[in-house]
């Protein structure tokens, strides 16, 4: 895990910013990990928690905001000052404690040194939240409404520091515009003077009036931003241009959620009366806004609370979706995330036939390495020089074998768990697997829908999702739902024999590509018919299926592509059979070779895909390693040669 200081210095758009002392920063581990992995994050303020809404609506609202951000693929980073510490990402307990405390301060930029020096707690305003988010490398921030130029600013000079912060801090603030109690036209003029881009997320460039969609002044923004992708490109340009000023993206409230239709004349009347009362009662400074908002709540029968909640929920959703799009401005059609096993493997190769006796020592050769089906496929694709793949997995305590492993992997270490282990017992003559011993329940316990939901942005930013049979059925169900919702290709590779293979039975209708051996296929189909007939029937039943590959040992591979059956001979010759050193990774190497071509050309050029797979399997069979390092020598010229001279295929009619 990166240290806080390193995270602050390496964040992707503030590498040259002087950071706060790390002694005052507490970055939540989840946010820290997301920063490290460049995953989408949305910052949230806490002035709404401490001063903006009454209890218990304040706590309920902030928890719901975080939930919405997660549901849309990002990590929430709620920011506050707690006991003199800058907190980036609150726990639920911290959020509830802050929202329940009395006499909590409201912190803007100017207040930070004072509050931290006194070890005080405070909710952060838009200005303070922007500053802290930027120092951490978070470019998106969702809130309700920003501060602005007060209506009596000519006499009081009262202008919110939020506007100056927007003029000097490159963060995109997603809000419902300016709080309606302020002077909207003067606020927009001030932002223009400060060089702040103001945009409306709508079909029109009319600036919203917070509680209502339109304002009586018909004020205009710089332009209308109509889509999430357009907004993401706008934020990306802000970052790349290094303008050192922010953006305001104003999101109009949905029409059905407006507090009042037709421009909000009643609300405007309440605001004017409340401001007059504030003047009469000598209410000034940062106490004016809470006073006026409380009057609006009172005179609307608390309807304004519901409206406030609806608009900020919408802003949170929009900000989260922009953050996801920003993380990958457009989805890479060749990207693949692989989910499943990454084990510590121990291979026991017997030296000769033996009869076990109690207490006897059996001579053998031992070899230890990283393994697991998902890991093997990822490692093989890495050796094939495919740079658009990653493995997502879980483990217990770190193991020395993980050091210097170049395979692109996102590992979530689970406290109190043991890393999965697998032991294979290999025949002394044929190197065939006699049996295996696995301690791999960690994948079923920890790769849950909740775990996958936390990694949703990784899934939806990949065009292909591949998983092995070590996942539980509830996790498989979740992946099928994600595949349908976000239109991703879903790939299943069997692992661990027929019992685990059966886990996919109920979800075949959502699978696009299937890898298994003949025994596993028979378990999946649960039929006594021939494999060829079962393949045909499977394609008739499930229209989503594009490709099934069944490995058949020395007999080669049987595939069904778009309902057509083909059988390919293995590339390893009879004479080369004696050179076989290890069979444990051949199927995984084959799957990696096929996927390498699919990632390039989808389901076109299937002969090339099979050639890649068969050559990868051949190299691994002749290697002592689970995955042969020789895979890195395979190139398109070699595959062209194999397709031309060595690849033997027959079409099968059933």
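^ structure tokens above, recovered residues below v
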């Amino acid at each position: 895990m990166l240290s806080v200081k390193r995270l602050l210095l390496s964040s992707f758009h503030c590498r040259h910013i002087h950071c706060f002392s790390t002694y005052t920063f507490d970055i939540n581990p989840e946010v820290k990990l997301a920063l490290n992995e460049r995953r989408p994050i949305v910052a949230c303020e806490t002035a709404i928690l401490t001063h903006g809404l009454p209890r218990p609506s304040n706590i309920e609202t902030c928890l719901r905001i975080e939930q919405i951000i997660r549901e849309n693929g990002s990590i929430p980073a709620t920011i506050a000052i707690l006991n003199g510490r800058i907190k980036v990402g609150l726990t639920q307990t911290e959020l509830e404690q802050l929202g329940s405390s009395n006499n909590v301060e409201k912190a803007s930029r100017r207040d930070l040194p004072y509050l931290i020096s006194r070890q005080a707690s405070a909710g952060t305003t838009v200005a303070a939240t922007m500053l802290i988010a930027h120092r951490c490398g978070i470019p998106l921030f969702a809130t309700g409404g920003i501060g602005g130029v007060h209506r009596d600013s000519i006499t009081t000079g009262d202008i919110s520091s939020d506007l100056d912060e927007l003029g000097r801090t490159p963060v995109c603030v997603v809000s419902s515009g300016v709080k309606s109690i302020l002077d909207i036209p003067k606020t927009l003029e001030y932002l223009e003077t400060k060089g702040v881009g103001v945009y409306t997320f709508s079909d029109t460039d009319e600036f919203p009036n917070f509680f209502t969609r339109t304002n009586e002044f018909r004020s205009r923004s710089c332009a209308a931003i109509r889509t999430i992708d357009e907004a993401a490109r706008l934020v990306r340009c802000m970052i790349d241009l290094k303008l050192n000023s922010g953006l305001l993206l104003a999101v109009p409230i949905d029409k059905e959620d407006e507090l009042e239709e037709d421009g909000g004349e009643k609300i405007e009347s309440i605001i004017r009366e409340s401001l007059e009362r504030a003047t009469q009662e000598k209410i000034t400074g940062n106490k004016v806004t809470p006073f006026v908002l409380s009057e609006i709540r009172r005179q609307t029968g608390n309807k304004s609370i519901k409206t406030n909640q609806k608009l900020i929920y919408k802003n949170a959703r929009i900000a989260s979706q922009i953050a996801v799009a920003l993380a990958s401005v457009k989805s890479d059609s060749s990207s693949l995330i692989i989910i499943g096993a990454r084990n510590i493997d121990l291979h026991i190769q017997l030296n000769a036939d033996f009869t076990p006796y109690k207490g006897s020592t059996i001579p053998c050769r031992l070899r230890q390495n990283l393994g697991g089906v998902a890991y093997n496929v990822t490692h093989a694709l890495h050796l094939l020089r495919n740079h658009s793949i990653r493995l997502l997995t879980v483990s217990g305590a770190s193991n020395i074998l993980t050091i210097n492993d170049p395979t692109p992997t996102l590992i979530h270490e689970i406290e109190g768990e043991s890393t999965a282990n697998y032991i294979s017992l290999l025949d002394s003559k044929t190197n065939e697997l006699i049996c295996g011993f696995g301690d791999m329940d960690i994948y079923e316990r920890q790769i849950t829908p909740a775990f996958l939901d936390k990694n949703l942005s990784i899934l939806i930013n990949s065009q292909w999702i591949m998983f092995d049979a070590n996942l539980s059925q509830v996790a498989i169900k979740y992946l099928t739902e994600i595949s349908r919702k976000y239109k991703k290709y879903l790939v299943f590779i069997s692992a661990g024999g027929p019992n685990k293979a059966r886990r996919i039975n109920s979800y075949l209708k959502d699978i696009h590509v299937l890898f298994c051996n003949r025994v596993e296929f028979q378990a999946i189909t649960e039929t006594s018919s021939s494999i060829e007939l079962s393949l045909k029937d499977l394609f008739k039943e499930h229209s989503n299926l594009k490709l099934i590959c069944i490995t058949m040992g020395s007999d080669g591979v049987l595939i069904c592509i778009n309902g057509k059956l083909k059988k390919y001979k293995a590339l390893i010759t009879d004479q080369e059979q004696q050179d076989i050193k290890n069979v444990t990774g051949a199927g995984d190497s084959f799957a990696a070779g096929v996927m390498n071509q699919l990632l390039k050309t989808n389901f076109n050029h299937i002969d090339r895909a099979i050639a890649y797979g068969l050559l990868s399997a051949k190299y691994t069979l002749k290697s002592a390693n689970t995955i042969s390092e020789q895979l890195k020598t395979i190139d398109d010229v070699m595959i062209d040669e194999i397709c031309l001279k060595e690849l033997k295929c027959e079409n099968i009619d059933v």
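The CA atoms of residues 154 and 186 lie 11 Å apart.
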